[in-house]
Amino acid sequence: MTFLRAVLAGLAVALAVPAAAVATDRFVVRDEPTATARSVQHARQAPQEFNLVGLHWQGSGAIWFRTLATGGGWSGWQLAAPEAEDAPDLGSPERAARRGWKLGSPYWTGPASSIQYRFQGRVERLRAYFIWSDPGAKTGRPPNVLDARAAQPTIIRRSQWGADESIVRAPPYYASSVRFAVVHHTAGTNSYSASDSAAIVRGIERYHVLANGWNDIGYNFLVDKYGQVFEGRGGGIAKNVVGAHAEGFNTGSTGVAVLGNYEAQRISAKARAALVHLLAWRLDVAHVNPAGKLTWTSGGNPEYPAGTKVSVRAVSGHRDTGPTGCPGGSLYAQLPGITADVAATGLPKLYAPTVSGSLGGLVRFTATLSASATWTVSIRDGSGALVASGTGTGKAVDWTWNASANPFGTYTYEIAAGPDTLPAQGRVPGPPPLEVTSLKARPHAITPNGDGVGESTSVSYALSTAATVTVQVLDSSANVVRSLATSQSYRIGTPSLTWNGRNSSGKVVRDGNYRIRVTATSPGQHASKSRRVVVDRTLGHLEVAPTPFSPNGDGRLDSATVGFRLARQAETRVWIMDGERVVKVLHPRGTLAAGASSFQWAGRGRSGAIADGTYRAMVEATTALGTRRLSVPVVLDTRAPVLRAVSARLRDGRTRLKVWLSEAATLRLRWASPDWADGGSRLASRPAGYSRLTLPRAMRVRVQGVDAAANAGARVVAQVAR
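User: That's the sequence. What structure does it adopt?
Assistant: Structure tokens below.
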């Protein structure tokens, strides 16, 4: 029988525990009937004696339960899920283990034999987890003895309270830092003995892992009413272990749960002292100001959807992060006083150490002290030798190290402010990882054949950090054809180089496939990237003549010739385009031999005459190297220029003529006496619009405009006014 079938059948499963606990801890699961989900069920005998119980169910309804003590007497009714948002973050692997189920909290009942349920609303399935966690298991530490300093408190470690490491589902994962603490209560009974506490913690671990499917116990620490502090989730009490205690706010927080229910009852003086000492130490390790506030981005829960900015205190109650009453009204009301005591414990302190910048440039170190003091920032290399330091006095630490001249490597820093202040230590950020990005060669195919089109490619790339760069052109056999840059130093940015298709001797390389390779190096780092480039001179020297031309049947420039040259045989197509529309195919796809080719265009489209305008002559040639395409504009113009003589006057013995043209044209000018017996002529090019010309003394002037397409306009005669 599989474990899952055993679970569904309600078969008891005994689990081995470490030697620190008596090996009598037991875990049993049973599916319960829900047929009478709108009433109080009859009491049911549990499959084993238990002292901790938790419920899972499906449906929108709610469940209450009560238990019958082994010695007789029913407990009060308890809500099955008073702290439903004690959970891993949305999207985490451990969150998916029990998708579709509502998860009740683990409740310490003391020795019990029976259970009874009360339902409200729709409950479709109910699964109960009965745990016997032996209170007789020995722990390795007596209750804590706490002092007023922020030194590490006495913490009962996992091996001492009997954590079952064999059931832990995955290694711990860590946040980059701890920024705040979240205080909880477990919402179970307050009637437990000091020797029960370790058993309660073991029971919570079993329920969180075996019932909820989480990786480990959800809380980072637990505190009982006797002042005992227990290590929670494994991974290191001073490390930034991500727990499963505040849905959407687990990453970057540490979760501390006080055993018991503190909705109406105040926590004991011993529990309060232990909580203050624990928070003072843990937040001091994280260099967090306990009295501070911050804005945190929710990872998602029913009250704060993912991405919501939420203001939280450095010492927050669970209800500050989600829709819950945790840590109970009484304990929540005590948090401001607890926070004040945490902030006053273990002074002086160092808060919010920050390092900005990186090796190879300026590195700035800042922090805040709880009181004015002399501070020092020390930088050491990998061997531990001091390489730089700065000092100052006051509450604000602010010092900048110029690391531009230091070789890259491993450096550590320490911000210290006297023997009574916990220093901040860490690694100086190295330069960002060296990367060659955004490598481009435009165009990717070049035709170095002397026609002035596609003769070279522009090579550009980006560096993530300053580096020494070599840029090479390699042929298909990985031989270096040309070095565009050799061991040149570049800063962060986008350098640009050009390759003209020639080798290191200045000769044009053979047609074929090549690679542009960019290799960057910096101390301890190396990066390389390549981009394909094709040298293909198959198609070149595309020309159209004449342009403009005028297919109007007057015998002058009535057609245009599209000419080009092929360096080798190719599948070729020639056509005329108007924007995105094909106007005329001059040569359908077919094989043309190497050499010069030309095709005539009479200025007509597929269906006949077309409008004047600018078109494009397109040629495409395909070989084993790929397809190459060239295009040039061609202007069709059948309209003659319109000319108007605005004025013609004789002034200072010269003829002053003013004309207007509809388009640029060459003016054919002739001037003479009234009978045209004497005079002269000349040509003058003028733009569109108004123009002035000065001619010899004349009685009249005859003007005709001829445009670039040889369209001749009407002749205009102007009489010269005296």
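The longest strand covers residues 362-380.
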